[in-house]
Amino acid sequence: MEAVTQKNGLFACPRCGKVYQLYHSLQRHLRVECGHEPRHACPNCGRRFKHRFNLLAHLRNWACRKE
Ligand SMILES: [Zn+2]
Ligand SMILES: [Zn+2]
Fold this sequence. Notes:
With 67 residues, the chain is of the alpha+beta class. It has two domains: 1-36; 37-67. 31% of the residues lie in helices and 18% in strands. The protein has a three-stranded antiparallel β-sheet with strand order 1-2-3. A two-stranded antiparallel ribbon has the order 4-5. The termini are far apart. 3% of the residues are buried. Bound molecules: zinc ion (2 copies).
């Protein structure tokens, strides 16, 4: 993933097009966000979370229950 387009002094993600002011921020995005689909899915409602603790908190609150 080396192709980084720069528009108006901004750095655009070559994968998703998200734009960052700092190259460092784009690097972080590529490393920890982009391409990492939220994979922790709630067994009740199917909502997906990037981090396991988000899912655990969601389950603890039963936020997915509509009743
Ligand atoms: Zn991206
Ligand atoms: Zn849920």
